[in-house]
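# step 3/5: fold
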Amino acid sequence: MTSALSRMQALRRAVNLVNGTTAAGLLAARIGRVRVRSGPGGLLLAGGWELPLPHAAAFTVGNVVLYRSRVAREFDVVPASSLLRHEARHSSQYAVLGPAFLPLYFAAAGFSKLRTGDPASSNIFEILAGLSDGGYRPAPCAERSVAAAFDAEKSRK
């Protein structure tokens, strides 16, 4: 499933190696006792994640994509599935932000949860990775902002 890398894929792989996020992903795979194999675009695929967190079907740390057995077919197709393309975009986000990606991602998930009741639909990182590719749907109540909610509460007092 591996082929020659584009310049951007090779750069993403190198940056994620240097910034330590791929090493963190490999450590996560070891903790989860999942086998790691080479995947397309310089990604490493680690299938069979069974730990309870995160709840997602798949998640990425550096260039390592960890996924649950129920979505294994998504990672064995050519061309790459929409879910794999979504996770590859997260890998590129790690290349830009390095280890800061995780706290920023969790902050964005918290904001999304407050705004819409869902940690993904207003999460900028999920939006940029492609909500539908990741299996997410935009929340129907995304119109009301947190600031508007606070303003409404203050006007009641």
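# step 4/5: annotate
The chain has a mean pLDDT of 87.
# step 5/5: archive (pending)
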